[in-house]
């Protein structure tokens, strides 16, 4: 029922429960049983890892059916809303202030609870359970835990950024960072920008700009690589990064791992331009066709001030001036963009149901699995009955 529901855009456990009464297909799949939405939701949570692995199983089925040719792949990303509200996003500076306020409140409530216990014990004797908490204390502790989780996520990101900056600086100086440098960096404990923001409902989600609507979305950056032959999704992942500049290599490597072989060519838009990653894939023998500019420019037009200037960018611009190469590149939009259009519009996958990067990754992997099954049937594939 979960597979069929996701394939037709019915993902909510309550919607699926209702469909077991009103939809003939769901009644057939449920053997005319009617599991309630709590049971369906619990099943999804319990078997989330297995549902995420369904993507690789469907991909293997596509390969056996001869639908994947290992020619070119097109990659792209889209913003998917998190199961969290933008209104619950706070600046790091405000999180620190609120943490101190709530910590003082919790300490005060604990003292009051202890005094109350002592008074009751003195009057009636010891006998109350030790786990009974005032509702105010329980609420304050929950809020404090959320705030600390959000702060820890921002602090982790700050450490990663500092480590990346140190690594790049070391590489520029021609030196690898040694163990002593690593220990010194960890002792420094870089702090986040006071203006950095985190969400209290889902600290792993990020405030991102949706490229299609130009509106802010509290969500995740969902990635997909699509086969150039049948339009099947051959790799997928979810990232917290706001743009796609670091996603070329991870997607190509994921596709290669999933398919057991290296695609001949990768197509991507300007959002994926990364001189180092493009060079790395080219050195591995892959034909990389990624424009360094948002739109193809005429030869006489001057470069924008922030345009990539490296030798790979110059060579790629020259290559895309050739009409034959440009036609190859233009196939990208027709391959990958319809996948997101179908997923978000027809399948109604505009918002994650779960929270946290690991659960969201499994949920996103499940969606391409059902998309591939749908695509296979649309292309005339007929399953062989055992």
Question: What separation lies between the terminal Cα atoms?
Answer: 21 Å
**Which ranges are low-confidence, i.e. pLDDT below 50, for 5 or more consecutive residues?**
none
Would you tell me the structural class of the helices and strands?
Answer: alpha/beta
- Shape category: flat
**Average pLDDT for all residues:** 83
Helix content: 40-55%
Alpha carbon gyration radius: 26 Å
The H-and-E topology, N to C, reads as HHHHHEEHHHEEEEHEHEHHH
Number of strands: 8
Describe the structure.
By secondary structure, this protein is an alpha/beta fold. It has 3 domains: 1-46, no CATH class; 48-84 and 205-378, Nucleotidyltransferase, domain 5; 87-199. The protein has helices at residues 2-8, 13-22, 24-29, 37-46, 48-64, 92-124, 135-172, 179-188, 248-259, 275-283, 311-320, 323-346, 357-378, and strands at 72-81, 89-91, 197-199, 206-209, 216-227, 233-239, 265-268, 287-290. The two termini are 21 Å apart.
Give the tags.
12% strand; Nucleotidyltransferase, domain 5; six-stranded mixed β-sheet; 54% helix; alpha/beta; 386 residues; flat; 13 helices; two-stranded antiparallel ribbon
Describe the structure concisely for a colleague.
Helices cover 54% and strands 12% of the residues.
Layout of helices and strands:
Layout: H1 2-8, H2 13-22, H3 24-29, H4 37-46, H5 48-64, E1 72-81, E2 89-91, H6 92-124, H7 135-172, H8 179-188, E3 197-199, E4 206-209, E5 216-227, E6 233-239, H9 248-259, E7 265-268, H10 275-283, E8 287-290, H11 311-320, H12 323-346, H13 357-378
Parallel strand pairs: 1-7, 7-8
Antiparallel strand pairs: 1-5, 2-3, 4-5, 5-6
Helix pairs in contact: 1-13, 2-4, 5-13, 6-7
